[in-house]
From TrEMBL, chain A:
Recorded GO CC terms: ribosome
Name listed for the protein in its UniProt record: 28S ribosomal protein S30, mitochondrial
Pfam families attached to this UniProt entry: PDCD9
Native source species: Nicrophorus vespilloides (Boreal carrion beetle)
Family annotation (InterPro entries): Ribosomal_mL37/mL65, Ribosomal_mL65
Subcellular location: Mitochondrion
Amino-acid biosynthesis found in the keyword field: no
Recorded superkingdom: Eukaryota
Keywords: Mitochondrion, Ribonucleoprotein, Ribosomal protein
TrEMBL record, chain B:
Family: Belongs to the universal ribosomal protein uL23 family.
Organism: Nicrophorus vespilloides
Ribonucleoprotein recorded as keyword: yes
InterPro entries: Nucleotide-bd_a/b_plait_sf (IPR012677), Ribosomal_uL23-like (IPR013025), Ribosomal_uL23/eL15/eS24_sf (IPR012678)
Keywords: Ribonucleoprotein, Ribosomal protein
Any Pfam family matching the protein: Ribosomal_L23
Protein name, as recorded: Large ribosomal subunit protein uL23m
Assigned GO CC terms: ribosome
């Protein structure tokens, strides 16, 4: 071997050299030729592969917080979200709510069979008298200062104090025989937010416009577009436990073809939904690392019903169903995110919650089993799994208060409530509850102080959804008229993003300068080094 | 219901003037596909949601559950001679939401039969034009000679 050849070998580096000096192997040849898989090279297939790779990247992130940051990586100013608030129900909204949560709704008069085994008669008498007393005190015993409050605010304040009393009485009385309540956390007025993608709906006009503008994309003009959904709500009381509630129907039953989800093809804005830019925030009323991560039940207010004056009885009922579905799914999907699943990574086991919507007198019960959180892309038709919601329409706990006494107390309502409390969370045998988390699992376990603090700050900032310190980018009216639509100022310097062919809304989260470290605080390094703090984007 | 000022009577002027109302609504075909119970109108920019609701209810007897409005920016165009930019008026769009069991279908103003008969007419017109052009072409070298004067 000549010296030149030796030099060439050395310059190839260690990895390449292995091949050049490779030893001939016995099994190098196979009887039938093996070719790599032939990939579809159409635009759609390539995009699909890219997406899949991204979802896998999110799945492979080890900790909860980093997963959430990773979800947010594509957008610096947040995603354009369709906002669904618990207490703002526009007209004709149930179909949309079912479509975006893939929920099959079962209106029933009684709780499903699952609850038949739970007996509550032993507690009924003792608890009933206490509840009656509490209700009387809440309704007539206090002088409330309601000046400057709207009808909704007055009702919400009353219902949340009633619910707190109810919860206190029920837990105090049941805890003796039901040890799971001893191990249950109670949150008041928690902030619940959830973020997910829902597909299948008609494209908005701007998307249609850019599709028709490009010759080779014209045929995709009417293809459905995914919508980023942001749910926010606030239950007056919610209960959490270390263990999940047992599923009501087995997970295999969730792909039952009898479960029907109405298909909503229109843009959500056509039924009164608004849009805004928000970061993907998933908050279940606790921070990652909390011990009690599984919801048992939640009480919700219904003061917003007083502000709906559409004069349609049937729609009022549907509005409650919409609240029941969205608040249950919103909370469960936020919990799923805390367990390491995301809107792109499917849950591996069903999750259940129990929801009560009440103003103190009228009670509606909802029972929700979340079987899937994949709603994006073609999942609306291809994913066989469906979520199921049992809805018991509103019934009154009592008829009225007369001469300081409750008239017509309805035991059935109290029984349903008791059954919700006595539904015991159980360990899921042979199920890994956090399959997509590995290593540290939460950032609090990182030993690197700098990394932990940086991630903590970044995560809390994202989920706070506070507006950025600097004002958002905007195209001024005069610019649109005199610079974009009509080029009337050709001599001016081109500095604005639309003149530089940049879309500021597509700025990524890490497209920014890291924190500056003053000279004094830097280690002893050359002048131009160590100016900027290290960043830990996943 | 008009805000126009009634002009002072002068001899020779009309005895009575009737002004059209400020409020008007025009049914338009929505660009974004809407659910069957939503109807889109463009309307006078002064009209509020309540005005739209009352307009439909009191004049046409159409009950609405809810009304949503938005104001769309008017189009701008450039003057061809002097190069300045002129802007059309902004348009207010109103979305009247009917009870959900009602279905509104945008009327087809140009049904197939009418369109076909129109096409037929156009075709015969084209034919006539063609024959006339042939006639002109044939006689272009013999000016001032009557048409019947030929071999």
């Amino acid at each position: 071997m000549s010296i030149i050849r030796l030099k060439a070998l050395r310059s190839l580096g260690p990895s390449r050299r292995c091949f050049s000096v490779g030893v001939q192997q016995e099994d190098e040849y196979v009887p039938v030729a093996q070719y790599p898989k032939i990939l579809d090279t159409s635009y759609e297939a390539k995009q699909a592969r890219k997406k899949e790779a991204k979802w896998k990247e999110i799945k492979d992130v080890k900790t909860v917080e980093e997963k959430q940051i990773k979800l947010n990586m594509p957008r610096y100013y947040g995603f354009k979200c369709y906002v669904f608030q618990e207490d703002k129900v526009p007209y004709n909204n149930l179909n949309l709510a079912q479509h975006i949560t893939k929920t099959h709704l079962i209106p029933t008069r009684t709780l499903p069979e699952f609850y038949n085994d739970i007996s509550v008669d032993g507690h009924l008498v003792a608890i009933k008298s206490q509840i009656e007393e509490a209700l009387l005190i809440e309704y007539e015993g206090y002088k409330r200062n309601n000046t400057n409050l709207t009808e909704k605010q007055i009702e919400d304040a009353l219902s949340s104090s009633i619910v707190k009393q109810l919860n206190r009485i029920l837990i105090n009385n049941l805890v003796e025989d039901n040890s799971h309540l001893l191990d249950t956390q109670v949150d008041y007025d928690a902030r619940i937010e959830a973020f997910w993608y829902a597909g299948g709906m008609n494209p908005p006009l701007n998307v249609k416009k850019y599709r028709t503008g490009v010759e080779w994309r014209k045929h995709t003009e009417d293809d459905p577009v995914d919508r980023a959904i942001h749910y926010s709500g606030s239950p007056s009381v919610q209960l959490r436990n270390e263990l999940p509630l047992p599923p009501i129907i087995p997970h295999s039953e969730a792909s039952n073809p009898d479960f029907k989800v109405p298909f909503f093809k229109y843009d959500p804005r056509t039924v009164g939904t608004t849009t805004t830019h928000k970061h993907a925030a998933n908050i279940a009323g606790y921070w990652p690392g909390e011990k009690y991560q599984f919801g048992l039940m939640s009480y919700h207010k219904r003061g917003h019903m007083l502000e709906r004056n559409f004069g349609d009885e049937a729609d009022a009922k549907e509005a409650l169903h919409r609240q029941g579905i969205l608040s249950s799914f919103g909370w469960l999907s936020a919990q799923a995110n805390m367990l390491g699943f995301t809107t792109f990574n499917e849950i591996t086991y069903p999750m259940v919650t129990q929801t009560v919507i009440t103003d103190g007198q009228k009670f509606s019960f909802y029972l929700y089993q979340m079987n899937t959180i994949l709603m994006n892309g073609d999942n609306y038709k291809e994913n066989p799994l469906k979520n199921v919601c049992w809805a018991i329409p509103e019934t009154e706990l009592f008829e009225e208060i007369k001469d300081g006494k409750l008239v017509g107390f309805n035991d059935e309502v109290l029984k349903s409530l008791l059954k919700f409390y006595k539904n015991v969370p159980q360990e899921r045998l042979g199920v890994n509850l956090r399959p997509y988390l590995a290593g540290e699992k939460i950032i609090a376990n990182y030993s690197d102080d700098d990394k932990r603090n940086w991630l903590e700050r970044e995560y809390k900032y994202l989920v706070s959804n506070r507006p950025r310190f600097k004002l958002d980018y905007e195209v001024y009216h005069w610019e649109k008229i005199y610079k974009i639509d009509h080029k009337t100022r050709p001599i001016e310097a081109r500095r604005r993003p639309f003149e530089l062919f940049v879309d500021p809304w597509k700025r990524t989260l890490d497209d920014r300068q890291p924190n500056y470290i003053p000279r004094k605080l830097r280690p002893d390094l050359p002048r131009h080094k160590g100016r900027y703090a290290k960043e830990y984007f996943p | 219901m008009s805000t126009r000022i009634y002009p002072l009577y002068q001899r020779g002027g009309p005895q009575l003037r009737v002004f059209l109302p400020n409020f008007w609504m025009k049914l338009v075909r929505p660009q974004q596909e809407q659910p069957p119970n939503v109807v889109q109108f463009s309307c006078s920019i002064e009209m509020t949601k309540f005005d739209v609701k009352n307009y439909l209810e009191k004049i046409y007897g159409v009950k609405t559950v809810d009304v949503r409005t938005r104001i769309a920016l008017g189009k701008t165009k450039r003057d061809l001679v002097n190069g300045y930019v002129v802007k059309e008026d902004d348009i207010k769009y109103a979305y009247a939401i009917l009870p959900k069991d009602e279905v509104f279908k945008f009327p087809n103003l140009f049904p197939k039969e009418v369109e076909e008969s129109q096409k037929q007419e156009e075709k015969s017109l084209e034919e006539a034009k063609k024959i006339y052009n042939q006639y002109v072409d044939r006689n272009k070298d013999r000016p001032n000679v009557p048409g019947w004067f030929s071999i």
